[in-house]
Write a structure and sequence with these properties.
The chain is α/β, with parallel strands linked by helices. It has 2 domains: about 100 residues, Ribosomal Protein S8, Chain: A, domain 1 (2-Layer Sandwich); about 200 residues, Rossmann fold (3-Layer(aba) Sandwich). It contains 11 helices and 12 strands. The strands form 3 sheets. Strands 9-8-10-11-7-12 form a 6-stranded parallel sheet, with helices on both faces. A hairpin with a 7-residue loop joins strand 1 and strand 2. Helix 1 crosses helix 3. It is globular. The relative contact order is 0.11.
Length: about 350
């Protein structure tokens, strides 16, 4: 129950929650959850027993966030820093898209991807659209900056479909493009040389599958992680196939990969056009695919921006700064060409 305690210029809302146990989880360890809401929404929250008093212009919005979090706890779900960040992002997206039914404006994420170890929920509208595309389309592109969850969400959907028996295998691949060091000069076997390039894919899989099960599945080759070059000549049937770092695939590699799609399979292709490591003058296959395949039925293109970054908040600021600099340089280049 909420009570408005002050006039509009000094808004304060009081919320009373009956369950002491849920209240502990709502507040977070040492008040961490409340502190996060204060920082992200520009409000001040006073905690007294089972009562929260929210001060600030955004108090009504913070009230809806807190009520949604409490309802989540009542439903037996967890509240974490990531969940709070996602709810606030979705609330901001709702406001930008226009007013709606006040009771439905902040229902929380509607999508849940269940795996053996955890449940993944999209945190932004772009992530929700991408997740739906992965569930509904046979070929899905996720394009945008680092930290937006492109690969992580794709791996979660792949594991979910594997668990339910919709696919028999998961195949994860990425181009082993050298960025500073030559593979031939690195010590170890070919697998040991390639493994560092594949580590982000291992990390994502470990988040969704128990270690022993993942090891067994890899031994049985029901889960494969391999460089893109290893895909040549194969037909990938009844599999969920993910091509990560696709901006580093050449046009020929991209065509080769796309034509591996077999019956009963799905493909997800993720990439960041601002981080191409190909030699100068070599066209990115991801850019070509965007141009050639746009409008083809059954293929979904999904785009992310810095506002979808779900890593440290500084990552979004860094990406925005680099994008602004790229825009400035492009404008200068165009100006020089005019002269």
């Amino acid at each position: 129950m909420a009570t408005l305690l002050a006039p509009e210029d000094k808004i304060a809302v009081q919320l009373d929650f009956p369950d002491n146990r849920l209240m502990i989880d709502l507040v977070g360890s040492n008040g961490a959850h409340l502190a996060q809401i204060e920082q992200l929404m520009g409000v001040q929250i006073v905690h007294r027993g089972n009562t929260l008093i929210v001060h600030g212009e955004a108090a009504p919005e913070a009230e809806r966030v807190l009520n949604a979090l409490y309802a989540r706890l009542e439903a037996g779900k967890q509240v974490s820093m990531g969940v709070i960040d996602g709810l606030i992002r979705l609330r901001a997206d709702d406001e930008e898209s226009g007013p709606g039914d006040q009771e439905e404006m902040f229902p929380g994420p509607a999508l849940e991807i269940r795996t053996r170890k955890k449940t993944m929920e999209p945190r932004t509208d772009a992530q929700k659209a991408y997740t739906r595309a992965l569930l509904e389309n046979e070929l899905t592109f996720g394009i945008g900056p680092a930290g937006t969850g492109k690969t992580y969400i794709a791996v979660a959907v792949a594991v979910s479909k594997f668990i339910t028996g919709e696919v028999d295998r998961i195949i994860l691949t990425r181009p082993a493009v050298e960025a500073g060091e030559k593979l031939g000069f690195l010590p170890g076997t070919q697998d040991e040389k390639v493994d560092p390039y594949m580590q982000p894919l291992y990390d994502a899989l470990n988040d969704f599958l128990p270690g022993k099960q993942l090891a067994k599945l890899r031994e049985e080759r029901r889960v494969e992680i391999a460089p893109l070059a290893f895909m040549r000549g194969r037909t990938l049937s009844n599999a969920f196939v993910i091509l990560d770092e696709a901006q580093n695939a050449t046009t020929m590699q991209m065509k080769m990969f796309l034509t591996r799609l077999g019956q009963g399979s799905r493909m997800a292709i993720t990439g960041d056009r601002s981080q191409v490591d190909l030699p100068r003058g070599v066209q990115s296959g991801l850019r070509d695919a965007e141009h050639i395949l746009r409008g083809v039925s059954g293929i979904s293109f999904n785009y992310f921006t810095a506002t979808d970054v779900v890593r440290h908040p500084l990552v979004a600021k860094i990406i925005t700064a680099y994008d602004a600099e790229d825009t400035r340089r492009e404008a200068e280049r165009a100006e020089r060409e005019k002269r």
